[in-house]
Amino acid sequence: MNYKHLHYFWTVVRTGSIARASAQLHLTPQTLSSQIKLLEERLGKPLLRKVGRGVEPTDAGRMVQRFADDIFSLGTALQEALLTGQEGAGQGSFRVGIVNSVPKSIACHVLEPALTPVDRSRLICVEGKLTALLAELAVHRLDLLVSDVPMPAGLSVKAFTHLLGRTGVCFFASPALLRREGLTLRQARSRFPASLIGLPWLMPNFDSVLRPRLEAWLHDRGVVPSVVAEFDDGALTKAFGRQGFGVFAGPAILAHEIEAQFQVVQLGSAPDLVEEFYAISIERRISNPVVAAITDAARRELFPRP
User: Fold this and answer.
1) Does the 95-165+277-302 domain belong in CATH 3.40.190.10?
2) Mind listing the pLDDT tens digit for each residue in 47-95?
3) Domain map of the chain by residue range?
4) Shared fold status for 95-165+277-302 and 167-276
5) Residue burial 90-125, b: 16+ Cβ < 10 Å; e: rest
6) pLDDT above 50 for 34
7) What whole-number distance in Å separates Cα of residue 63 and Cα of residue 44?
8) Which residues pair with 50 in a beta bridge?
9) Which of these, 65, 92, 86, lies nearest to 6 by C-alpha position?
10) What is the rounded CA–CA span in Å between residue 174 and residue 179?
11) Given 3-state DSSP classes, what are the helix, strand and coil percentages for the chain, each rounded to the nearest 5?
């Protein structure tokens, strides 16, 4: 690949037009267009399409752009490292995909080792659905996924699941909600789980792996939840819970943190209602030192085994 042609394409995408990129690169529009045409022929795919008076990348062009972002960002980091004399400075980025049903606090604790001084790479986190993130992992746009479900069977993605740990579930409510329902905290805890009957509920949506398990657990105990709201985002669920709109479930390992952060109280726990969390990587046996640090710390500190 001619990296000068790649740089021309990258500049066109960033500026949004052949004319603006030509002025920036001190080339004629005809020369620039012909150079990008050579890149398209080399890659075997069209990279740009006309939109009004400008251009935008095609699907293939967006992929090329993302790789170009990394390539030229590493080039800038190399220059900075040489200028400052700091060997290893700006080694690049460690990119993590977080499945949007994973609680943000869990993801934060899991990824803490990636920000230790030993590793100087920049942590980049993106959220999304599992299948979309797996596609990014497959083309090496991501280094790791943090998920609450293992790698699905039948997908044509060469990736491997590493269990980080398991936790039970606790149930929380604001003191204002209990007062409104005529319950003291002592009563709610002593009568649990029967005390959950009749209370309003804030539920994860049906895409969440926890939802069917939670409903089954409640059904087995004679609790039919009165669902007032459903959420994709666990943090938003807790924010509504803090305002007294309903009872919600959260990971037991974060119970004290949830109580302190959202000013709610724990009503009871369900140790047999288990949530699992996974790291998904392209390595069967982990050799990436950052991934190894993340998985080791999670298993040792966040999800210690009995």
Assistant:
1) yes
2) 999 988 889 999 999 889 888 887 877 776 666 666 655 544 445 678 8
3) 3-82, 95-165+277-302, 167-276
4) yes
5) beebbbbbbbbbbbbbbbebbbbbbeeeebebeeeb
6) yes
7) 14
8) 55
9) 65
10) 9
11) 45, 25, 30
Calpha distance 18→9 (Å, rounded): 9
pTM of structure: 0.66
253 residue type, one letter: I
- The answer to whether 274 and 141 are in contact (CB under 8 A) is no
- pLDDT, tens only, 113-155: 888 755 556 888 999 888 888 888 887 888 899 999 998 877 7
Residues 6+ apart with CB under 8 A from 261: 238
Quote the CATH superfamily of domain 167-276.
Periplasmic binding protein-like II (3.40.190.10)
**Stated length of the chain:** 306
The per-residue DSSP string of 212-256 comes to: HHHHHHHHHTT---EEEEEES-HHHHHHHHHTTS-BEEEEGGGHH
Closest among 262, 259, 202, 254 to 233, alpha carbons compared:
202
Bridging pattern class, strands 144-147 and 122-128: unpaired
Distance CA 254, CA 293 (A): 21
Spatial separation of the C-alpha atoms in residues 161 and 151, rounded to whole Å: 6
Amino acid at the residue 175: P
Class of domain 3-82: mainly alpha
